[in-house]
Amino acid sequence: MHVFVTGGTGTIGTAVVAELLTHGHTVLGLARSDASAATLTAAGAEPLHGSLTDLDALRAGAARADGVISLAFSRDYGSAEALEQGLAEERDAMATLGAALIGTDKPLVTVSGTPWVTGRASTEADPLPTEGPVASRAVAVTDLLALSSQGVRTSAVRMPRTVHEDGQGGFAGLLTDAARRSGIAGYPGDGEQRWPAVHARDAAALFRLALESAPGGTAWHAVADEGDRVLDIATVVGRRLGLPVQSVPNETFGPFGPIFAMDQPSSSAHTRQALGWEPKHPSLLEDLEALQP
Fold first, then answer.
1. Rounded to the nearest 5 degrees, what angle is found at the Cα of 253, between the Cα atoms of 248 and 257?
2. pLDDT (0 to 100) of residue 158
3. Is the entire prediction scored with pTM above 0.85?
4. Residue 106 CB neighbour total at 10 angstroms
């Protein structure tokens, strides 16, 4: 397939572009800067200049492609207002891409997060939460999946809180960044809450599988580690950075504080069985050993 990818130079997107090219697909990547365009070209993809808010560019990219993978998201989420703005931009982009593919039967794979369920690991059958800091994303993804009834083979790959590679990325990466700034490897609450995780290259393999074969209107879990204790994550970070490990207020982590404090394990049993996905790369705790002081 000739695949249009947004967010193709991020942690997940870089791995997705490489995965697609390795498996015989060609890639048209949205590039918001000359540097992004150069990165895509060096990887073997064709750049299409434009940003996530350039809806005409999104329509043009979708029109040129046999399938679309939507990964782009604003990098500015340092405040609740910035996070909400990023979610609004993502919502409009998804709606634009979906509308461009109506009646084509082409695949459109988007990204969302794994839900949380009290007392157990969430599964692919659980709905996304419609309350909380990222509730608007749940609405946008649900609306997109509904386009399967209008001739778009939509699917959503639900990502865990940490998508990592070389010790970087996701919630664990934000926790590490906070530790470097504060001099404390902090964690919210008692640290017993669990975060699911996946290596970026394993996640990329699932995006490719969804693009190639996922039925319309379906959701899949890119979860390799069902749930690592946040205390264990902070302990590795503290040891690698030479910092003390202790509980800190939720507010330390900005708008993500309430989410950081939640117990949110997640299962990918159905995804593995139905799509034949099998993670092969290092776990989060193994990957964090790559951190340098």
1. 90
2. 97
3. yes
4. 21
Same fold, 2-162+198-225 and 164-196+227-266+281-290: no
* Rounded Cα distance, 152 and 160, in Å: 25
Q: Quick one: CA torsion of 277, 17, 212, 164, rounded to 10 degrees?
A: 30
Alpha-carbon distances, residue 86 vs 76, 92, 224, 287 (angstroms): 7, 10, 27, 28
Tell me the two tokens of residue 2.
Answer: 């000739």
Query: Tens digits of per-residue pLDDT, 146-176?
Result: 999 999 999 999 999 899 998 889 999 999 9
Q: What's the rounded Cα separation, in Å, for the pair 183 and 52?
A: 35
Alpha carbons within 13 A on the beta-carbon side of 251: 0
Q: Are 200 and 11 in contact (CB under 8 A)?
A: yes
Low-confidence ranges of the chain (pLDDT < 50): none
Domain boundaries, the chain: 2-162+198-225, 164-196+227-266+281-290
CB atoms within 10 A of CB 43: 18
Helices of type H across 64-217? 80-101, 135-145, 170-182, 200-213
Residue carrying the six token digits 């017993």: 192
- C-alpha span between 62 and 265 (Å, rounded): 34
CB 28 within 8 Å of CB 2: yes
Q: What is the CATH number of domain 164-196+227-266+281-290?
A: 3.90.25
The CATH architecture assigned to 2-162+198-225 reads: 3-Layer(aba) Sandwich (3.40)
Q: What's the CA gap between 68 and 189, in Å, rounded? A: 40
- Measuring CA to CA, how many Å separate 263 from each of 98, 125, 245? 33, 18, 19
pLDDT of residue 90: 85
